[in-house]
Amino acid sequence: MIRYLNSFMRHWRLYRLFPGECYGCFRGVYSSFEEALAAAPKTKKTGYDHHELAQWYLEELDDEIKDFDYPVMFHLQKLLPLGPKVLDFGGNIGIHYLQYKKYVPFIEQSQWVVFELPEMVEAAQQKVNKPGLSFTADFEAEFEADIFLASGSLQYIGDVKSLLQRFQSLPKHLLINRLPLYPGAQFVTLQNGGQVFYPQYVFNETEFLQGLNDLGYTLRDRWVDRIDGCIVPFHPKRSIAHYSGLYLSR
C-alpha cells in the first residue's frame, strides 16, 4: 500500500507540474498529434517553429558532450572518411557539428547540412558560421546524403520510412539517437519542451526496425541512452526509462 501511494504521489506531482517549468515532462496518451495539441495547457505556445524558441537555443547553447553522444562520435570517426555528406535531421542550430568537431576528425571537411524548421534556420544562419556547415528548411532540396543523422528528432515526425524515401537515393548509413522505443503499441504523448509544448511519438520497437529493414537497412549497433526517458504519469505501461540509439546501414 505504501509503495502504491508513493508511486501515485510521484505521478501526481509530475502531472500537476506539467503546465509550468517542468522541462522534459510528459502528459497523456493520444492517438494523434492533433489530439495531443488540443489537450495542451494554455500556459505556453505549442509547436517548435517559433522565433523566441530559436533565440533561446542560441543563447543557451550547450556544447558539452553527453553520454549518448559518444556512440555517434565513434561511428562518425569511421564513416566520415567514406561519405562526406551528412544530413543532420532536426539538428537545431548545428549543435552536433559544433559539439563533435572538437573530437571527430574530418567533420570540417564534410558537407554537413542541418535540416530544421524555418525559424531555427533563420536564427542559425545569422549567428553560426562554420566551414562546411549549412542549414536548410527545404528537405526536398537535400535529395542525397551519405550519412543520415537524427538525434532526438524522429519522434516528432512519426513516419520515418516515408521520410527516407524522399531521398533520391537512400543514405547508406543511418545514425539514430535519443529514440523512444518500447515493446507496446505506438502512441503520441505531449512533452513540455521548456518554452513550448509539443507532441511526440513513442514507437513500437519491432515495427520501427521492420520499417527500416523493408528499405534494406541492417542493424549494426545499438546502445542505451540513459539520460533521456519518457515517464507518462498514470500510464506505467507506456513509460520508458531509457531511450535507444541505433546504427544501421545498407
Q: What does this 3D model show about the protein?
A:
The chain is an alpha/beta fold. The protein has one domain (2-249): Vaccinia Virus protein VP39 (Rossmann fold), CATH 3.40.50. The protein has helices at residues 2-17, 33-38, 51-59, 69-79, 95-100, 118-127, 160-164, 205-214, and strands spanning 26-30, 45-46, 85-89, 111-115, 133-136, 147-151, 173-179, 181-182, 187-192, 196-204, 218-225, 243-249. The strands form two sheets. The protein has a seven-stranded mixed β-sheet with strand order 5-4-3-6-7-12-11, sandwiched between helices. Strand 3, helix 5 (95-100) and strand 4 form a beta-alpha-beta unit. The longest helix has 16 residues, at 2-17. The radius of gyration is 18 Å and the shape is globular. The termini are far apart.
The largest sheet, given as strand count, sense and whether it forms a barrel, is: 7 strands, mixed
Mean pLDDT equals 90
**Secondary-structure element string:** HEHEHHEHEHEEHEEEEHEE
CATH topology: Rossmann fold
Write the CATH architecture name: 3-Layer(aba) Sandwich
Number of domains: 1
Integer-rounded radius of gyration: 18 Å
The percent of residues in helical segments reads 25-40%
Subunit organisation of the chains: single chain
Shape: globular
Query: Any low-confidence stretches, pLDDT <50, length ≥5?
Result: none
Counted beta strands: 12
Level-1 CATH class name? Alpha Beta
Derived from helix and strand composition plus strand pairing, the structural class reads alpha/beta
How are strands sequenced across the largest beta sheet? 5-4-3-6-7-12-11
CATH superfamily name? Vaccinia Virus protein VP39
The portion of residues forming beta strands comes to: 25-35%
By DSSP (H or I, 4+ residues per run), the number of helices equals 8
Distance between the termini: 52 Å
